[in-house]
Amino acid sequence: MPRMSATAPLALPPPPPVQSDWALFLDVDGCLLDFADAPEAVVVPEGLADALARLSRALGGALAFVSGRRIVQLDALFAPLRFPSAGLHGLELREAADLAHVPDAAPEALRQARDAAERIAAGYPGARVEDKGIAIALHWRAAPAARASLEATAAAALAQLPGYRLQYGNCVVELRPAHADKGQAVQRLMGATPFAGRLPVYAGDDLTDEDAFAATNALGGVSVRIGHREPTYATHTLADTAALRAWLSEAAARLGARA
Ligand SMILES: [Mg+2]
Fold first, then answer.
1. For 8-60, what is each residue's pLDDT tens digit?
2. Distance of CA 258 from the midpoint of ligand 1 (Å)
3. How far is CA 94 from CA 7, 66, 70, 88, 140, in A?
4. Which of 47, 108, 141, 152 is deepest in the core (most CB within 10 A)?
5. Known catalytic residue: 27?
6. What is the CA(204)–ligand 1 centre distance, in A?
7. pTM of the entire structure?
8. What EC designation does it have (predicted)?
9. Which class in CATH covers the domain with range 22-102+180-258?
C-alpha cells in the first residue's frame, strides 16, 4: 500500500453525488449506523433500509456492505433485505449470486481466549466479548477501564493462534484470521457481477477500512472517510453518519426516480 499522509491534517473534499454507473461499498458500524454501547443495540433509522433498496435498484444491484459483522447479522439488521455483503472484514463474502464463502471452525485456542476474555469482562460492567465464530471481538465502548486488560488478553492469545492477527477498531480489538481484509473484499466483489465494470466507491470510518480505501483508489475509484480519523488513504470525506445517510438518501430520491 502507498504511504498514508501523516503530516498536516488533510483538507479532503466531500464526495460528488452518487452516479448510476457506480458500485457502492458501505461499511456499516460508525458509517451507515451510529455506534451503540453493544453491537446488538445499534438502530437502523427509519427510512434507511428503503433508501438503500431504492439506491441498490438504481445501481443495478451494485450496492454491498463491507463489515466486521457476520453476514447473518447484517441480514438480521436490514431484514427482509439481503444485500451483497462481505462479513468478518472480508472472510465471508456473498456476491449477488448469493455465494457464501464459509470459513473454517474456530481453533481451540480461540475458544480459550474467549473464555479468558469473558472472565475479565465480567469484572467491568459494560465490557463485551462478541463471539463471531472464527473471530472474537473484545469491546470496551461502555467500559473504558477494561481496555488495557482486554488488549493484553488479546495479545497473549495471539501467540497461541498461528494465522491470526489483531484488528484494532473504535473501542474494540478483534482476534481474527489474517488471510483476508476489506481491501481484498472490494477487489473480489469488483470481479463479480453486478459490480464488474463499474466505478468503485467505498465509505467507511475505521482503521479496518483503510485497506479498502487503498484498494478502491488503486482501481481509480472514490474513497470516502466518515468522520475525522487520520492519517487516511481516503480521497474524500463526510463529517459523520448522518451526513453519509443524507448523501445516500439524496441519491436514492434522484436516481430512484429514474430507475
Ligand atoms: Mg465502521
1. 455 899 999 999 999 999 999 999 999 999 888 999 999 999 999 999 999 99
2. 31
3. 38, 10, 11, 12, 30
4. 141
5. yes
6. 6
7. 0.88
8. 3.1.3.12
9. alpha beta
